[in-house]
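A.,

Following up on our hallway conversation. C-alpha cells first:
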C-alpha cells in the first residue's frame, strides 16, 4: 500500500515538468497569460495531490489517526475554488475579447484539467489507480468521496 501511494505522490510531481514539456515544447502552445494560468493551476493541484499522498504515507507509517495537515488542505479547498473561479472569469473575458484561439483554448483545457483535479482530490474520486478503488467503483457503479475529503471530514 505504501509503495502504491509513494508512486502516486512521485508521479504527481513528475507530471508537472512532463506536461510543461509536452504542452509548451512539443505542441508549441504559446505561453500566453491564459495558457500559463491554466497550466499553473493544474500544476498547483498536482503539488497539493502529491503533498496529500506523502501525508497519507506518513499517517500509515506512524499509525496516526489522520494525516497531518488536514487544516491546510481544508483551507486550500477554498483557495483553489477561488483561484479556479477567477481563472474561469479570466478565460471567459479573454474569449469575449477575441484573443487568438491558441492563446486561450489550450489554457481553457488546462483549466478544465485543474477543475477535474480539484474535484478528484477534494470532493469525488474520479481517478482510480488501485485495484481496491476499481473494485469498489465496479461494485457500486458510482463515484465515492475522495480519500482526502474523507480524511478532512474526520
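Then the amino acids I'd put at each of the 154 positions:
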Amino acid at each position: 500500500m505504501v509503495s502504491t501511494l509513494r508512486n502516486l505522490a512521485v508521479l504527481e510531481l513528475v507530471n508537472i515538468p512532463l506536461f510543461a514539456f509536452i504542452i509548451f515544447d512539443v505542441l508549441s502552445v504559446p505561453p500566453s497569460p491564459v495558457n500559463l494560468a491554466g497550466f499553473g493551476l493544474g500544476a498547483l493541484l498536482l503539488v497539493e495531490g502529491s503533498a496529500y499522498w506523502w501525508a497519507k504515507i506518513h499517517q500509515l507509517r506512524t499509525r496516526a489517526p489522520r494525516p497531518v495537515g488536514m487544516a491546510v488542505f481544508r483551507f486550500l479547498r477554498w483557495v483553489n475554488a477561488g483561484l479556479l473561479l477567477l481563472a474561469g472569469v479570466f478565460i471567459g473575458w479573454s474569449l469575449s475579447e477575441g484573443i487568438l484561439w491558441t492563446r486561450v483554448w489550450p489554457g481553457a483545457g488546462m483549466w478544465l484539467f485543474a477543475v477535474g483535479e480539484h474535484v478528484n482530490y477534494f470532493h469525488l474520486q474520479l481517478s482510480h489507480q488501485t485495484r481496491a478503488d476499481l473494485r469498489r467503483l465496479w461494485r457500486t457503479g458510482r463515484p465515492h468521496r475522495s480519500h482526502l475529503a474523507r480524511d478532512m471530514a474526520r
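The CA atoms of residues 8 and 129 lie 9 Å apart. Curious whether your intuition agrees with the design.

B.
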